[in-house]
């Protein structure tokens, strides 16, 4: 196995006939400098047709749902931490959705060749940046929902809200700062038409890419732990509450369960497969692997990445099922006045009221 620097210096030097000795584990020992990965084509009908079609579906539906969500959210005042977090996610989702057309054009080979460079340099980096923003806010939402479960009558204090807005800004800034070098350091010129993003990186750029990927793994697994832990505690509280009231309404109980676990389900479906696939894939970008293994890892990464992109489509479901202010405002926007009429007071009062008892879907 070769390190980042070794792979890079191997790729940068003059191409000479290479001697490759296969070792167990499908990884090559390179005993001569070469551009092995250049000869390993990823081109296939799946990457040229299937994924562009799947991303087109995501783009059309995602743009519609997220634009609607933005429209609805920006009529709701940011009066709770929960709403501030959801607004951050919706902005991240809109930006992520806007990166899809570039990927579609690049992968389908319908776009000009400089688009490939643009995708590696800008749009893919923006995609990952927004993905981790969503992941971090999912973690914060889980903590907030747990706090709301144990202290239902707690209202967000203005000072708290300022703190939460500052925290949100800081998260965007920090994530942008670690992503920016991935744009700047993707600047090597490439003669071959079939280059990979890693081929455009400077030596330090490839190291930075590797470091950011492992940092993002920590961010993901940390947030997954937070989300899982908080929702286990929430479920426990809900169970205690139902046991106390001895609710006999089975249907209501089922709805509550499904809604409570929506965040967890979305998180698992969208992000867990990608983060399992990402580690060996990043290794294949910085270490010389056998071509068949590198290609398999690439396809696995692309498949699981599509699941992560699906998140931008599933998030609006979370807003709808977990945020009553969103529902009320959506029905009002769509002129469904009967549905938008809150059962208790105004939309705002209803939101606050909904947060005050455990059996509500707002948890
Ligand atoms: N977690 C991340 N955060 C920010 N940028 C990233 C992240 N992961 C990858 N990138 C950047 O996105 C671009 C595409 O990366 P990647 O998907 O690994 O390449 P490829 O499309 O060749 O498989 C690269 O410039 C890379 O550095």
Sum up the overall morphology in one term. Answer: elongated
CATH T-level topology of the domain at 45-245: Rhopdopsin 7-helix transmembrane proteins
Number of separate helices: 12
Query: Biggest sheet, in brief?
Result: 2 strands, antiparallel
Which strand order do you get reading across the main beta sheet?
A: 1-2
**Do you know the CATH architecture of the domain at 45-245?**
Up-down Bundle
Give the structural class. Answer: mainly alpha
Q: What is the rounded Rg?
A: 23 Å
Which residues form runs of ≥5 with pLDDT under 50? 1-6, 8-36, 342-363
DSSP E strands, number? 2
Region (Disordered): 1-24
Protein name: Purinergic receptor P2Y12
Domain G-protein coupled receptors family 1 profile: 65-319
Membrane topology: Multi-pass membrane protein
